[in-house]
Amino acid sequence: MKRSKELSSYFRLLRGAVFLGILIFPTHLYAVFFLATENPEHNTTPPANAAEARAWNLQGIWRTCQGTPIAPRWFLSAKHIGGAIGDPFTVHGKTHYAIARILDPDSDLVLWGVTESFQDHAALFREGDEIGQRMLVFGRGEIRGRPVFLEKDSIQELRGWERGSGRAVMRWGENLVTEIADDPVLIQKGLGQLIGAEFNRDGLPDEAGLGPCDSGGGMFLWQDNEWKLAAINYAAGGRYNTTTKQGKGFDALLFDGGGFFVCKDENCRAEDSWAFIEDDEVDQPGSIWGTRIQYRSSWIEENIAAMPDPETSIVLESAQEPTGPFKAVTSWSLSQIPLALEILVPKSRRFYRMKTTDRVRLLAPILSDDKLLLPFSGR
């Protein structure tokens, strides 16, 4: 099994890569889609195995993409998805609201703290070798698109599929971890380490690729009698072309890229932007990539341990005049619907301001009996 491949000096956020001695620039993530079937309903219900079904149920909806609870009040997702304090996160049929955000400076990971505790949360894959292990992957993105053919000896050979159409339906698939990308270039660019799996012609029965809005979904590995979160979906596929002189090419995930040109820079415009993949007896498969949890597990655990209750990140202050001086308000509680801080109605004029781990603004106050609600939002 391959341990790692050498990278060039380029890696683009939101885009995955096929590593062929040089770095190739693919497109945004597709959805979990399958090599063996084009049925859009395939694997849209939980796996029959109870342990695998638990991993399925740990996938929550975050900004139409996904996140995974990893502590009673914290979930992990992909930084490039975005989001703001006040946004909803739905898992186990219940909606929680983000009240804290911690961005990882050294990877695409982000921690979000929520209003109420989760029913269940995933354990982290902290130690051990991922290479060669069967991986469960989850996503809510697009089905596979048009087939990609390579003309060879007057015969059209199927090689993979283009980017598909959008359909926010949860699906699961499987793959084998084939490599770890730990090149210093990734680390310098703040992308950390990645784990990768090839999209193989002769892969597993539910061999899966990834696509748009699969970002943030979990990659799980079996360890200590449970499926543990090993990575967060980051990127997949590439941009291919049949020639370097006709257009910008097409975005696809191929199980064999031999005979195609593939884009190796951010522009895909000039002839020297393209590298030819030799078509020989050995397939040149595309890959799917996830941000490696093992690389940042200490950062994750240290931040959660420092703030197990995300509400402790909220500071409410008040003053008699808008210019201050402001003093901390210690007697408040959190309301979820609407998302607001609840305080007693003040006996005199007061001005309020709020601080938390991310930009936030107080909205118009709501008077309710002897309570005053101070709604807030990160947008």
Summarize the structure.
With 379 residues, the protein is mainly beta.
Description:
The protein is mostly beta strands. Helix content is 7%, strand content 40%. The strands form 6 sheets. The chain has a 6-stranded antiparallel barrel. The protein has a 6-stranded antiparallel beta barrel with strand order 8-11-12-20-15-14. Strands 9-10-17-16-18-19 form a 6-stranded antiparallel sheet, with no helix packed on it. A hairpin with a 2-residue loop joins strand 2 (60-62) and strand 3. The model is unreliable at 1-31 (pLDDT under 50).
Overall radius of gyration? 23 Å
Derived structural class: mainly beta
Helix fraction?
under 10%
Number-wise, the strands total 28
Instruction: Give unreliable regions as ranges.
Output: 1-31
The major pleated sheet works out as: 6 strands, antiparallel, barrel
**Can you give the mean pLDDT?**
85
Count helical runs.
3
Lateral strand order in the biggest sheet: 2-3-4-7-6-5
Amino- and carboxy-terminal Cα gap: 46 Å
* Coarse shape: elongated
Approximate strand percentage: 35-45%
Topology overview:
Blueprint: E1 30-34, H1 50-57, E2 60-62, E3 65-71, E4 74-78, E5 88-91, E6 94-103, E7 109-114, E8 134-139, E9 147-152, E10 155-162, E11 171-181, H2 184-188, E12 194-198, E13 208-211, E14 218-223, E15 226-236, E16 238-241, E17 250-254, E18 261-263, E19 274-276, E20 287-292, H3 293-306, E21 315-319, E22 327-328, E23 333-335, E24 340-344, E25 351-355, E26 361-362, E27 366-368, E28 371-377
Antiparallel strand pairs: 1-13, 2-3, 2-5, 3-4, 4-7, 5-6, 6-7, 8-11, 8-14, 9-10, 10-17, 11-12, 12-20, 14-15, 15-20, 16-17, 16-18, 18-19, 21-22, 21-25, 23-24, 24-28, 26-28, 27-28
